[in-house]
Known about the structure:
By secondary structure, the chain is α/β, with parallel strands linked by helices.
Amino acid sequence: MTSPLAQRVLDGEHRAAARLMRLADDGAPAARQALTELFPHTGNAYILGVTGNPGSGKSTLVNRLIKSFRATGSTVGCIAVDPTSPFSGGAILGDRVRMQEHADDPGVFIRSVATRGHLGGLSRSTPAMIQIFDAMGFDVIIVETVGVGQDEVDIVRFADTSLVVLVPGLGDDIQADKAGLMEIADIFVLNKADRPGIKRLEREVRTMLSLHRAAADGQTTRPPICLTTAATGDGLPLLVEAIDDHRQSLQRQDRRQRSLTQQAHLIRAIARTELEILFEETATAPQFSALVADVVDGTTDPFTAADAFLAALLRRNDV
Ligand SMILES: Nc1nc2c(ncn2[C@@H]2O[C@H](COP(=O)(O)OP(=O)(O)O)[C@@H](O)[C@H]2O)c(=O)[nH]1
Ligand SMILES: [Mg+2]
């Protein structure tokens, strides 16, 4: 038996999908039920991750990629995970403007989500959104993230193809080196190629790739490097070709083995996010303050208190 909400999502209703995404973000039990029902209908979409610093031009790039996928008849679901609050940030506002462009196209569904306050990294609903888009039958799902937290890196690893976006002029310690982004890139996108410093950035990436990938066992292929100016569309055809090539190469791999690796990353991302949420809930419960007072008063010590904290967290109780 499929619940009415899950059924409406399967029927491709955008409003039902938006509702389920909101429920998932709140951790509502109804969302969990619906997602369980949707899972058997997933696994068909091609998932493209786009990671890079805020302001590197990811959304501009994604907008161009959406157009290119649409031109070949593919439908596209897009999730932009943004670190800024919807109230303070111009980034989401910018995304809204971009979304307007596709507002009349039922073959495009864009969701912009702010990451949850201090939890940082991935929004709780991102894995749910991917599953919902997949079950709705979207051919392509694009996930835009800044890739800062481990949970975000896990999500990027869950993608079929991962683009890492770099821009010139941010100093010589390569931006991708943080959080191991170097290892996750299937394709490097050097965006803002109209800016000074692009040649230097390209040299740095090439040098680093030869060091990194030479060190990594069995890593025989180097990811392609694509220079783009997302603002004008320069370099986009070559990027689209590189994405296509990577997508083709996936079809030659062992499907089950790839699924095992991908699902492991997805489960880790979901569990890590839930753990962070539980941690924060436990640490802000009134009983936690009492525990702290016990340590200060010498009734207990910090190690015993931390044990009690963890026990409460794993019971999903207050301290
Ligand atoms: N000069 C230049 N600016 C760009 C390029 N691509 C994007 N931008 C600008 O960079 C800013 C941030 O772009 P956005 O797509 O929102 O970046 P995001 O935060 O990574 O999603 C915007 O003002 C864009 O117009 C580019 O190729 N060259
Ligand atoms: Mg953006």
